[in-house]
Amino acid sequence: MKEIKAQEVFLEAGYQISPKAVEMITSHSAPNDLISYILENVDESLFVIEAEHINIESFEKEYPDLPKECLDEVPCSNDTSTSQVSPVPSTRSPARSSISSTPSPTSSSATLRDERCFSDSNGQVNNINIMSDITDMSTCVGEYMEFVQYFRNRYTKLSNIIRGRVTARPIESLNKNRKQSSGIRRGGGGDYNETSIIGMVSEIRTTANGHKMLQLEDPTGSFPVLVHQAEKDLFEEASKLVLDEVIGITGSMTNDGSLLIAKKLVLPDLPNISNRREGTWGKAVFTSDIHVGSSTFLEEEWCGFLDFLNGKTDNEQLKKMSEEIRFLVVAGDLVDGIGIFPGQEHELDILDIYDQYRKAAEYFDQVPEHIKIIISPGNHDAVRQAEPQPRFPERITSLFSDRITFVGNPALVDLDGVKVLMYHGRSIDDLVASVPGVSYQEPEKAMVEMIKRRHLSPIYGSRVSIAPEKQDHFVIDPIPDILHCGHVHTVGIGNYKSVLLINSGTWQSQTEFQKRVNLMPTPAKVPVVDLSTLRTTLLQF
Questions:
Q1: What is the DSSP letter of 247?
Q2: Rounded-to-integer distance, Cα 209 and Cα 197, Å
C-alpha cells in the first residue's frame, strides 16, 4: 500500500496522521483492515493519530487470519479551465417567451457514485449519477463531539486545498515562541521574517485606528492577525471575510511574537488553470422555488412553461429547443409549505401540505417522458430544516412518478458527464448580510463568494441551521461544472473560473414579506443550458 493512500483515508475521516503511524500501517500485512479498526476505535478527541495510538496486538487478536490486500485507488477529479461570460442582448420571439443567451465556460468530467439510466422514446440514454448526497448518511444527534468533528473535518478539507499554495506552520509553534518571549528576530535586511499559517476565522473586528483584527484558529491553537488599512487591496479582501471560513495568511511577526502582520491572504478558491471537458449532447432546464399551494403561485406562467416542454408553441426555435431538453433540475421549494412564517395560512390556496405535493405531482406528470427530472428540497419543503437536508420522505415521493430522481440539499449530480452542484441557497441570506457588494438583486455574486471559499455555507450559527455531521457536506470538492441555487427569487447567471453559476428565480409573484423588505422577485424566467457547450439561454414566460 502506498503511504499517500493511507493518509488520504484518514484525512477524509477528519484526522491527521504522523509519518511513523503511516509506516506502521503500510508495512502491516492487512493495511485496509487495520485502518478500519483504527477508525472504529480511535479516541474522537484526537486530531493527530500517532504510532502510540495504534494497538497492533489488539487488532491481530481480534482478526487473527486476515489476508494481504491493497487500498483501492482514490480517483481524482479534473479541474475546470478559465473562461469569461459575456451576455448577448435579449431578442424577442414571436411566441410568448423571450430568449437571451450567454456563452459558456468549460468544465471537466467526474467519477460517479450512484447511477440511474433512463431511455427516451428514441432509445437515447439519459444518465443521472448521484455523486454526493446526505440522504441515508446522516449520523448527528447534536452531541458536543459531533460539533468538534464537524469543524475539524471542515478545517482538514479546506486547509488541504490551501496547503498546496502556502507552506504553513502550526499556530501552536507561534504560541510557543510567544510564551518564551523570544519572538521572531529580524532578518539581515531589517524586515521581520515571513511566516504563514492556515486557520479558521473565529473573530473579526475593527480596531480604533480602522485596521482589521482577525483571530485565526487551527487544531493546535489560535493567533491574532492584523490587516493594516494602508494595504488597500489586502484590506478590501479582509473586509469580505466571514466567520468560520478557512484561510491562509502570510505575514511578518512583530518582534515580541505577539501578532502577525498580514501581507498576503489566500482563500481555498479555484485553480486558474483547468482541463477542458468533452461536451455531451442535449439541454438541461434549471428552475426552483415553484411554491405550489401559494396564493401568489403563477399558475398561468407555469402552465405556459409546461406547454413549452411539450413543444406546444408556434415558435420553431422554441419547439426545436424543447425537443433537445434531456433534464429538468429543480433546486428546492417545490411547494409553499405550512407554518413556514407567521400568518402564512392567509397566503395559501392549498392548506394541506400533502395536497400541495399532490398538485405538484400532477404538474410534473405533464412533463414529457424524454425529460428526466431531478428534485432537491428547500426550506419550504417537508424535510428537516437543518442543512444538509435529506431527500423527500417516501410518503411524499410516492405521490410522484418513478422517473423522478429525488436528492438531498446540497447534492452533486452528474448529468451524463456534466457535474451539477445543486444547493437551495439559503446561505445567500448570510452572505448578503456579511459581504460588501453582495445583494439579492445579483445572487450570482453571492455564488462567486461560495466558490472562492470552496464552501456553500461558511457562516455557522447565523440564518442557516447546520446539522453537525461528521463530514462537512458543504465543502465544494470536486469542482462542479454548474452551481445551481435558488431561494432568493431573483435570476442570476454568470461564471467564475469555468464554473457556470445559475440562480433560477421563482414561479411566485411578490409576497407580502417581500413587499415589506422591498425585494422584487424575477419570476417565470427559466435558464436553459446546452450541455455540450454550457451556453445558457434565458426564457421568459
A1: E
A2: 25
- Domain at 145-266, CATH from 1.10.238.10, 2.40.50.140, 3.30.479.10, 3.90.1150.10: 2.40.50.140
In this prediction the pTM is 0.78
3-state secondary structure 330-374: EECCCECCCCCCCCHHHHECCCCHHHHHHHHHHHHHCCCCCCEEE
Per-residue confidence in pLDDT tens, the chain, 541 aa: 566 677 777 766 767 777 788 888 888 888 888 888 888 888 766 667 888 888 888 888 777 766 443 333 333 333 333 333 333 333 333 334 455 665 555 433 333 345 555 555 455 566 889 999 999 888 888 888 999 999 999 999 999 999 988 888 888 888 776 655 444 444 444 345 789 999 999 999 999 999 999 999 999 999 999 999 999 999 999 999 999 999 999 999 988 888 999 999 999 999 887 655 666 899 999 999 999 999 999 999 999 999 999 999 999 999 999 999 999 999 999 999 998 888 888 999 999 999 999 999 999 999 999 999 999 999 999 999 999 999 999 999 999 999 999 999 999 999 999 999 999 999 999 999 999 999 999 999 999 999 999 999 999 989 899 999 999 999 999 999 999 999 999 999 999 999 999 999 999 999 888 888 788 999 999 999 999 999 999 999 9
Cis peptide before 523 (omega within 30 of 0): no
At 281, phi and psi to the nearest 5? Answer: -115, 165
CA-to-CA separations, 221 to 65, 74, 171, 362, 373, in angstroms, rounded = 43, 31, 6, 56, 47
CB 357 within 8 A of CB 335: yes
Joined together, the cell numbers standing for residue 442 give 445579483
Q: Provide the pairing of β-strand 125-133 with 221-227.
A: unpaired
Determine whether 147 is exposed, middle or buried from the number of CB atoms within 10 Å of its CB (0-12, 13-18, 19+). Answer: middle
CATH topology of domain 113-140+273-540: Purple Acid Phosphatase; chain A, domain 2 (3.60.21)
Map out the domains of the chain as residue ranges: 3-72, 113-140+273-540, 145-266
Burial class (CB in 10 A: 0-12, 13-18, 19+), 6: buried
| In contact, 484 and 329? CB cutoff 8 Å | yes
* DSSP designation for 48: E
